[in-house]
Design a protein that fits this description.
This protein has about 70 residues and is an all-alpha fold. The protein contains 2 helices and no strands. α1 (about 1-25) packs antiparallel against α2 (about 30-65).
Length: about 70
């Protein structure tokens, strides 16, 4: 449960940083910079989510179920 709360905290931090940086970028004048920022934040959140799934969920699932590829 602590790992899940840590994941939520990291994703929340990315969202807050995105909002703050987007305020400085001014997306109306620089739409490409805002798009790059949005893609970078989405990729960061996806990385954190995949890391959580691979390191926590699958290892706990593998300890419950005998999987031949683990």
């Amino acid at each position: 449960m602590n790992e899940f709360l840590l994941l939520l905290g990291r994703i929340f931090l990315i969202a807050v940083l995105q909002i703050v940086i987007e305020a400085f970028i001014d997306p109306d004048k620089r739409p490409h910079h805002a798009m790059i920022l949005n893609v970078a934040c989405i990729m960061g959140c996806l990385y954190l989510l995949l890391d959580f799934i691979l390191n926590n969920v699958l290892t706990k699932l593998a300890s419950l179920i005998n999987m031949p590829f683990f």
